[in-house]
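Appendix B. One record, verbatim.
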Amino acid sequence: MFTFSNVKTYVENWTPMKGHSKESEYRDDLLNYLRENLNQPGVFQKEYIIKKESGRSFADIVVHDGRARDSVGIELKYNLKNKSQTDRLYGQLDEHLKAYHDVLVVLCGNTNQEQLYYLKEKVRTLPSTFRQLEIIQKP
């Protein structure tokens, strides 16, 4: 729970660098930001492990304090525009239920507001094993 609220605060405070044109650029930008800021001496009593992941059932970034029950998967999506992209994201979130305690979805670039609404409605149908699931929108 503490890991999620700490990570969420830092993700909300993150301002992506301008000029990104790919999801991987946003991911690397956020990854570097979290590594530089989340583990500053004296901020938290524990050190977080922050790493890039890849693979169909893995989030783009995972943050944890060494305990799987306190892990946060961060899934980034760039330019979420249509139903097929939203359905694919929903499928990824369903898979993340098996791997992470909590999940943050970070939408970057141009997000179609109808798709955002559709995603929020679909997320409500996911099993309630999520402790926390939040969607954050970035420019």
